[in-house]
Amino acid sequence: MKVCNTCHKPLALSNFYQQRIDSKIYYKSDCKVCSRLKHKKWYNLNKEHIKNYAKNYNQQEKAKIKNRERANKFRNNSLNKISIQNYREQYRKDNKNYFKLYTIKYRKINKVKLKRQRHLYYLDNKSKILKKHNEYSKRTRIYSWRTTFKYEKWRDKIYKNGNYTCQMCGKQHCKLNAHHIKPAKQYPELRYVVENGMCLCIKCHTTIHNTIYH
């Protein structure tokens, strides 16, 4: 039994509306009849306000639909696609630090979720992953001589002979690579010969490989 605040009548709990707060059930202070009467009075007083609100809401939804249609037409054009891509690339370049911090936070918050996604991806694409792994292992066997102590000595000698400068463009204080004049695959005897080496920067090294060997 409970007493209503408006009519002051003792009634059963079935005559009151329920309300859940933090997984606990509470009964409202007014009975169902009194609450309905209050709702009708409030509706009659605020009838015009409700109609105006509904009209404005419908107009806003129609405007959103029109804007979406215009945006889709703009995106579907071939010339506009190129401009959008250029804008995205510039935005990413200007806000690199923001994206880095955002990715770090997202990975910390969603560690468990990302592990599950990786596991599911591995189960779905197990055959492809194993093929790539086998190809990578073959490549590492072919280029395993680059991890030896002899290769490190040979590389250091070439850097010293070149005075830590690129012999093509003359750059200094940059990342350098030791280049084989005659390729090491075709001439394995000349892998560790100092006369077969050149000190180059990364750009010059890539241009030589793209022009001569490809």
Q: What global shape is seen?
A: elongated
Q: Figure out the total of helices.
A: 8
Stretches where pLDDT is under 50 for at least 5 consecutive residues are: none
Please identify the structural class as seen in this structure.
alpha+beta
Q: What is the strand arrangement across the widest sheet? A: 1-2
Strand content: 5-15%
What integer value in Å does the Rg equal?
37 Å
What's the total number of strands? 6
**How would you sum up the major sheet?**
2 strands, antiparallel
Q: Helix amount, in percent?
A: 55-70%
Order of helices and strands: EEEEHHHHHHHEEH
Rounded mean pLDDT is 87
Question: What would you note in describing this structure?
Answer:
The structure is a single chain. The radius of gyration is 37 Å and the shape is elongated. The protein contains eight helices and six strands; from the N terminus they run E-E-E-E-H-H-H-H-H-H-H-E-E-H. Helices cover 60% and strands 12% of the residues. The chain has four domains: 2-45, no CATH class; 47-94; 96-142, no CATH class; 148-211, no CATH class. The N and C termini lie far apart (90 Å). The strands form three sheets. A two-stranded antiparallel ribbon has the order 1-2. A two-stranded antiparallel sheet has the order 3-4. The longest helix has 30 residues, at 47-76. With 214 residues, the chain is of the alpha+beta class.
Observed structural traits:
two-stranded antiparallel sheet; two-stranded antiparallel ribbon; elongated; 214 residues; alpha+beta; 12% strand; 60% helix; 4 domains
